[in-house]
Write a structure and sequence with these properties.
Oligomer: single chain
Largest sheet: 8 strands, mixed
Helix content: 25-40%
Number of strands: 19
Radius of gyration: 21 Å
Low-confidence stretches: none
Strand content: 25-35%
Shape: globular
């Protein structure tokens, strides 16, 4: 049996893990009681990975401030829990590979159209088939963008800007992309040749696993003011792209885990478990990783940008809709580490905020948000499952104070992929989806079983827990009509 945790519910949906042992700060978990009971049960059963233990271990890392935070979609990850947030003082803190993960800047781009459900209904199957053929997906899928070594370095340095300069997409896409589609501290020389070789032909590909492309309908508007700012309306057709940095991000993670493990020993850092290998932020190793991670983030921005271009072409082919009418609502990542300024104990401090399976959820007034969204806060894009809703939320002032402006990114897994593949049959999942009016195209029927809706938590509960705690507020509920999977 592992460590017992005396969690205290401070207010509705906020659970305090008191400081103990080597913890520098407390843990703070935002979740409903059912989730907390499940986490405690996992601890009692001595599960292979424990999310509560990971919350505690993150709280032991040097330079962490505030609290080790877990959000309602929490489940065990590599080092950090998924749904985890850790903010570190820029001068005394560390950068942690496990606090970003292997799919660097995996995220979501949401595209709007002027079409409604009734207008798209006659061509839905044709559109789904066209998208399936137009967007490369699946393990090892290759895209059509051809680049030299110098081109790839430019893409890693410039992100989506590189593609706009080549006539792909527009500056409006950049305006409505987090970081304008480019993290400025990227340095391709910090990325291994192996990582670059793995990426040459993967820009503009969806990948596999939980990545998807969905045709969705805006089922319910929950905040009319914010929805109007974002350009959302009832019965509107939108498209959601969920993918990341593909093989390049994974290789960067592998490369730097080894380097960080050596750095932790070199600098005498307390590392509670090997998956939390880290280095001082301002060390040579820390700076190199941040520069490489920024390249991975830029690759992910460019990947979603390129897929959006393919989606626009497919929409035009299947429906006649002019590509200029398919607008980027927002593009935001949920596996990254960024320097941000936050108020801690009444004082503004520069922090390196790690978000692992967590997204920026900045409230009103932050300069980082597009000007058109600044009055309400920018959108956060929360993926559900193939058979359930997704959500558009926005950040709040309370969330800025409680979670360093961080929010949920999805439903969160309830079963591992291995357990899901044993419990569900892919063709049965497909049939069940169709009975609910959801069309599915996939490159892997086993992948469908691994990603079955039953393998995930209830998205409604997860969103409710987030909103009950006040860290985010709901804007719109989206329902899938067609799903493209790897």
């Amino acid at each position: 049996m592992r460590e017992r945790y005396d969690l205290t519910e401070r207010t509705s949906g906020e659970w305090l893990m008191p400081k103990q042992g080597n913890m520098a700060v407390p843990g703070m978990i935002f979740a409903d009681r059912e989730t907390i009971d499940r986490l405690l049960q996992d601890e009692d059963c001595d599960a292979q990975w424990s999310a509560l233990s990971q919350v505690r271990h993150v709280a032991e890392l040097p330079g962490i401030v505030g609290a080790s935070i877990a959000l309602p979609d929490i489940h065990p990850g590599y080092g950090f829990p998924i749904g985890g947030v850790g903010a570190f003082d820029a001068n005394t803190g560390v950068v942690v590979v496990g606090g970003v993960g292997f799919d660097i800047n995996c995220g979501v781009r949401l595209l709007s159209t002027p079409l409604t459900r009734s207008e798209i209904a006659p061509s839905l199957e044709q559109l789904g088939e066209t998208l399936f053929r137009a967007v490369p997906a699946g393990l090892g899928a290759e895209g059509n963008l051809r680049m030299s070594v110098a081109d790839l370095d430019d893409l890693l340095r410039l992100g989506s800007e590189y593609l706009v300069a080549r006539g792909i997409g527009s500056t409006q896409d950049l305006e409505f992309t987090e970081e304008a589609g480019c993290m400025s501290n990227a340095d391709p020389s910090c990325v291994s040749d192996r990582a670059k070789q793995r990426q040459f032909r993967q820009v503009g590909t969806l990948g596999s696993g939980n990545h998807y492309l969905e045709i969705q309908v805006v089922e319910t508007i929950l905040d009319p003011q914010a929805a109007e700012a974002y350009g959302l309306f009832n019965e509107q057709i939108v498209l959601s792209i969920h993918t990341g940095s593909r093989a390049l991000g994974h290789q960067i993670g592998q490369d730097y885990l080894k380097e960080m493990a050596q750095a932790a020993t070199k600098y005498g850092l307390h590392v509670p478990e090997r998956e939390l290998a880290c280095a001082p932020i301002d060390s040579a190793e820390g700076r190199r990783y941040l520069a490489a991670m920024a390249c991975g983030a830029n690759c992910a921005f460019a990947n979603r940008h390129m897929i959006a271009h393919l989606v626009r072409s497919a929409m035009q082919h299947a429906t006649g809709l002019d590509p200029s009418n398919v607008r980027t609502i927002y593009d935001i990542g949920h596996n990254n580490a960024k320097f941000e300024t936050h108020r801690v104990n009444g004082q503004l401090r520069k922090l390196l905020v790690h978000r692992k399976g967590s997204t920026r959820a900045f409230g009103p007034g932050r300069d980082e948000a597009p000007a058109a969204y600044r009055a309400v806060g920018h959108p956060t894009l929360v993926g559900g499952t193939m058979g359930t809703a997704s959500y558009v939320l926005h950040g709040t002032d309370a969330g800025m104070a409680k979670t360093f402006g961080s929010g949920i990114h999805g439903a969160g897994r309830a079963l591992s992929r291995k357990k899901a593949a044993k419990k569900f049959w892919g063709e049965t999942v497909r049939t069940d989806l169709l009975s609910h009016g959801i069309h599915l195209w996939t490159h892997s029927i086993r992948g469908v079983a691994e990603e079955a809706p039953g393998a995930y938590k209830d998205i409604e509960r997860v969103v409710q827990a987030s909103c009950t705690s006040g860290i985010t507020q709901p804007v719109a509920r989206l329902r899938p009509l067609a799903v493209i999977k790897g």
